[in-house]
Design goal:
The chain is mostly helical and 225 residues long. The protein has one domain. The chain is 72% helix and 0% strand. It contains 8 helices and no strands. Helix 1 runs parallel beside helix 4, helix 6 crosses helix 7 and helix 7 packs antiparallel against helix 8. The radius of gyration is 17 Å and the shape is globular.
Length: 225
Amino acid sequence: MSDHDASAAGSQFATDTSNRSIKEWALALFVLLIGLTIAHLGVSLFLLSDLGTDTFTIFIQGLALTVGLSVGTVHVVILCLIMVLMLFTTKGYIKPGTVICAFCGGPIIDFFNWILSPYIHAESSMPVRIAAMLAGCIILSLGMSVVIGSNAGTGPNDLVAIVLTDKLKRFQFRTVRISCDLFFVIIGFLLGGTLGAGTLAAALLTGPLVQFWLPKSSKIIRRLY
């Protein structure tokens, strides 16, 4: 299917969930937490490989250096700004899961870093680090597809590509995601963020891998609802 076909043959990410029951929301948020855990296992593998920051983090790093604040502070501020902006300018994207993604990701990453850091680190052999980085991209993308498929909300930074995919219509998610990631990388690098081989790999692989996983994970999730 070409990029000029409507994303995934007209598939839309924005949906009305106002009629969901409490039980349905509980199930959706449970699925989202599973996806979030998988995704951040991938993030941990990627970070422990020490081959470069992810595409959004390099953007945050650059901004932090520019404004003189910590990376953590700028990260929270930017995520909150994105949520507020989309809450007032879009409909059907900001859901309870968006808040969960924004504030629960860090502790999950810390947990996996604590478990895996004795085995994967900057002093590991290069084949191990490259394997961890590539596995991280694959696992992250799988987790993202589960989070999106839960229809309970997704991370504020991931919403940028999702909203643009729906609004532009002419391009598939993978193309929009690659464009967004490269934008974050270029701006972050120009502002002083750390660029590595892993950063470029994440920028080029995440979008296509998420699009690859989406129909597969969505098919499984639909059986739960």
